Amino acid sequence: MNNTSGESKKDTHTMRAARLHGIHDLRLEDLPQPQPGPGEVLLRVASVGVCGSDVHYYEEGRIGDAVVTAPIIMGHEFSAWIAGLGEGVEDLEIGQLAAVEPAIHCGECEACQHGHPNLCPDVRFCGTPPIDGVFAEYTIMPAENCFPLPKDFGPEEGAMLEPLGIAIHAVDLAHLKPGQTIAVLGAGPIGLLTAAVAKAAGAGEIYMTEPLADRRKFALDYVADVALDPQETDVVGEIMRLTNGRGVDVAFEAAGAPETPDQAAAVARPGGKVVVAGIPSDDMMTMTASTARRKGLTIKLVRRMKHTYPRAIRLVQKGMVDVKPLVTHLFPLQRIADAFEMVVDYDDGVLRALIQVSD
Predict the structure, then answer these.
(1) Do the Cβ atoms of 93 and 82 come closer than 8 Å?
(2) Which of 166, 185, 245, 254 has the smallest count of CB within 10 Å of its CB?
C-alpha cells in the first residue's frame, strides 16, 4: 500500500480506494481517479454504509451467483458531494451534497419499461461483481442517480437513505393499511427501518424478534412494542398468544436466518402477507408449504428498491423516520477492515457502521 500526499494525488489524478481481493482481504490502494462522461457526475464520496451484502462478499466471496473473481471496490449505501459535471448535466451544482441511487438500470428492458427498474436483468449495481462500488474517494454516476439533499442533512443521513429506501419498498410490497399489525423478524438496520416505515404508514402493534440483546433493547426504544429473543422464547407461539391466536397482518422477514422465513409464514394470519427481505448465506429459503397454502398467504420478496429516494428524503425531513440513531460507529477509510470485522462480529452494539471517506 502506497501512502500518497494530497498534493501528489491531485497532480497525478489518483485516489485512495479499498479493494476486496479475497475473503477477509481488504487492501487500501491508489487507483486512477475517474472522469465523468456525458450525462455523468464526478462525486467526492462522503459517507458509505457497511451493508450486510458487503459483509457477504467479505465473508463468503459471493451472494448467490454474484461471485468475487477479481479485486473489487465494495460499497453502495452512500452520500457524496458533486465534484464535477459531465457534458449536458445542468440540474446539479458543484458542491451540493447528494444521496446517490447505486443502481444504474438499462431503461430499455421489459422490467424497466413497466416501472420496475429494480428488476432490470442488466442493472449495473455499485459493489456487485464485477461493478466497482464506492469505498473510494471518488466515483462517477449518472446525473439522474443523484438526489440533492436539503441543507440540514448531513453525509451520515444521506448514506442511510439507501437502506431506508429498501424498507420503504418492503412496506410498499405489503400494501400495509393503517391499524394493521406486523411482525419483523430480525432487528438489524433493514428490519428496524422496515418497522419504522411501517409505523409511519400507520401500523398498529409491532412485534420484533432478534437474538442480540442490545438490538432488542434498541428496537424497543426505537419503534417496537414487543421484542422477543428467539433463543429463549418460542417466538411463533408468543406472537400467536399476543395476537389471541390470530397472527399478524404482515410478517416481514429481515434476518436471512434459516428458520425465519418459516416463522414468518407461521405468524401471519390466514389471508395475510409475508415479505422477505433477508439474504440467506446458503442461498436457500425454506417455508412449510402446507402452512403457506392453507393460510392462502401472499408471499413477496424484496429486490432492492424502486423510486424511493424522494420519499425517503421527505420521511427524514419531516421527522417521520429518524435514521440517525442507527448510525452507531464511524470509521475513516484507512480503518475499513476494522469496521468490517466489527460488523462481522456484531461487536460493541454495532448497527450500522459508516465509512467517512471525506469531510
Answers:
(1) yes
(2) 245
Q: Which residues have CB under 8 Å from 166's CB, separation 6+?
A: 190, 193, 277, 302, 304, 305, 308
Q: What is the pTM of this model?
A: 0.94
Q: How far is Cα of residue 279 from the mean position of the Cα atoms in its chain?
A: 11
Q: Which residue carries 424497543 as its cell? A: 220
Instruction: Read off the DSSP letter of residue 28.
Output: E
Q: What is the rounded distance in angstroms from the CA atom of residue 287 to the CA atom of residue 264?
A: 9
For residue 346, the 8-state DSSP code is: T
Q: What is the mean pLDDT of the chain?
A: 95
- Cα 314 to its chain centre, rounded Å, is 18
Cα 97 off chain centre by: 20
| Burial tier of 348 (Cβ tally within 10 Å: 0-12, 13-18, 19+) | exposed
3-class SS at 358? coil
User: What is the C-alpha separation between 116 and 122, in angstroms, rounded?
Assistant: 12
Q: Work out the pLDDT band at 7, boundaries 50, 70, 90.
A: very low
In one-letter notation, the amino acid at residue 247 is: G
Distance of alpha carbon 120 from the chain centroid: 18
10 has pLDDT over 90: no
Cell of 1: 500500500
Task: Look at the alpha carbons of 289, 292, 296, 301 in this order and tell me if their dihedral is positive or negative.
Answer: negative
Residue 344 CB: number of other CB atoms within 10 A? Answer: 14
The DSSP bridge pattern shows strands 206-209 and 226-228 to be: parallel
Query: What is the mean predicted confidence (pLDDT) over 245-271?
Result: 98
Say whether the peptide bond before residue 38 is cis (omega within 30 degrees of 0): no
Q: In the chain, which ranges are continuous DSSP H helix?
A: 6-12, 52-60, 110-113, 155-159, 161-174, 189-200, 213-222, 235-242, 260-267, 289-295, 309-317, 336-344
Tell me the β-bridge partners of 354. Answer: 49, 330
**15, HSE (Cβ side, Cα atoms, 13 Å):** 22
The answer to whether the CB of 198 falls within 8 A of the CB of 182 is yes
